[in-house]
Amino acid sequence: MDRKKALASFKNYVAAYDYNNKGVSLKIAHTYRVAEIADSIACSVAGAEADLAWLLGLLHDIGRFEQIIRYGTFKDAFSVDHAELGADILFCDGLIKNFPVFDHQKELIETAIRLHNKLTVPNELDKETKMYSNILRDADKADIFRVLTEPPYDERKTENLTIRNEIMQCVFEHRCVPRIAVQVNELELLASQCCMAFELTYTKTYEIVYKQGYLKKLLDAPELAIIKSEIKKAWETKNFIFPV
Predict the structure, then answer these.
(1) Using the 8-state DSSP alphabet, how is residue 64 labeled?
(2) CB 87 within 8 A of CB 113
(3) CB 76: neighbour CB atoms within 10 A?
(4) Does the global pTM surpass 0.90?
(5) By the number of CB atoms within 10 A of the CB, which of 77, 94, 139, 240 ranks highest?
(6) By C-alpha distance, which of 63, 53, 62, 61 is closest to 1?
């Protein structure tokens, strides 16, 4: 796969958006990091092609740019499902033709992009599609922990807030928080985002998150002490070292 061509096509697409818009620049940086993390994870997974994983990272948030322009927010609940929008732009509007992909890869790519922000990956997926979907989801989660430690997300105010029982139930069950459990305050939102650490798939992802240290930084907030303890338990059950 010609990565230079893929990167040039991506840059050409985002050139239509205002780089001075903080949301746009944030998502461009996020995209590049997810692509590189997906590459690293794929190199550790038997049968995975690093080039395809990297391309999935490059394309996964293509819908974010239209989302921020149209709606002024990255919150899907108040705008549009950005994964579905991105897949539509690529495969319904035809943007995918600008990227160096084979016809037999298109269905897998579309599926992985549509699924990257969903709660779970359907069991009925074929083995290859499921593998790449999980690689992309892991890579996205790993970099989201970084994003949450940087502006503007690091300016959140979580003191003196509480987390509802329905979200804490997910914590004690060591699973991600479903979108329908709408977060009503900044602490609930942060708690839900940290819960992504319960459902990482690949050993390499745990190693990356551990070395990054961003998850540890997020969980050092006193109000997340219980969540930190439960994530630590979950990681140790899977024989992974939690970044204490």
Answers:
(1) H
(2) yes
(3) 17
(4) yes
(5) 139
(6) 53
